[in-house]
Amino acid sequence: MDVAKAAALLAAARDGDEARVRELLSPAGGSESDGPHEAPDGVTPLMAAAAGGYEAVVEVLLGHGADPARRDHRGRSAAAHARHAGHTTLAERLDTIVDKETTIW
């Protein structure tokens, strides 16, 4: 993992900078989409974008393999970050994705 790139991605997601997020993501996805391992409180770019209510950034990150079920150091998912910040529609969207991934057919 490119730690500097992962940190820049986290900052861009936190700022809602969709163009910069797209620029930093690998076309085939990569470990950077989950942010740097030493991120404060274990917050990922997806969690940061969700907390900011940046729906377009969330969709870009999901499309590049960001894990919506991943938890921060306090056990909160991206949906929980969105919900806590008052972005209930975005939280419901993220919950739906996680529910679909855990459904056993």
UniProtKB/TrEMBL annotation:
Entry keyword set: ANK repeat
Region: Disordered, residue numbers: 25-44, 68-87
Lyase recorded as keyword: no
Comp. bias regions, Basic residues: 71-86
ANK repeats: 41-73
Pfam families listed in its UniProt record: Ank_2 (PF12796)
SMART domains in UniProt: ANK
PROSITE patterns reported for this sequence: ANK_REP_REGION, ANK_REPEAT
InterPro entries listed in its UniProt record: Ankyrin_rpt (IPR002110), Ankyrin_rpt-contain_sf (IPR036770)
Protein name, as recorded: Ankyrin repeat domain-containing protein
Natural source organism: Plastoroseomonas hellenica
Phylogenetic classification of the source organism: Bacteria, Pseudomonadati, Pseudomonadota, Alphaproteobacteria, Acetobacterales
